[in-house]
Specification:
The chain has six helices and no strands. By secondary structure, it is mainly alpha-helical. α4 runs antiparallel to α5. It is elongated and about 50 Å long. The two termini are about 30 Å apart.
Amino acid sequence: MTTSTTPSQLIGTTGADRAFFLLRTVFTIAPIAFGLDKFAQILTDWDHYLAPWINDIVPGDAHQAMMIVGVIEVVAGLVVAITPRYGALLVAAWLAGIIVNLVTMGEYYDVALRDFGLLVGALALAVLAFDRNKQTA
C-alpha cells in the first residue's frame, strides 16, 4: 500500500497554516545556519559582534564565547523543528539577548533593528504554534 502526501497536507490549507509552515521553516534553518557559521566564519567575523562587557563576564575570549553561542543557536533551531511553540519562545528570548548585546555596544543598530523584526516573527510563530496545539487537543 502506497501513501502519498500532498503539499496541502504538509503545509495546511489556511493562511495561518501556511504562515506557521513558513515561520517554522525559517526559524529552524536560520539559527542552525548562523550557529554553524560561528565555527566556519564564512558570513562574517562574529567575534566583533560581542559587547565588551559580555566578553568580560564570559569565560574565555570572544571567539570561544561565539562558539558557545553557535551551539546554543543550533540547539534553538532544533527545538523549533521539534517543538515550535517552545522553540519559538527560546529563539525570541535569544534574539532579545542579541539586541541588548548590540545596543549596549553603541553600534550595529541596523542589525539590532533587524533582529527586533525577527523577534516579532518568532513571537508570531509561538502564537500560531500555541493555537495549533489547542486545535489538536
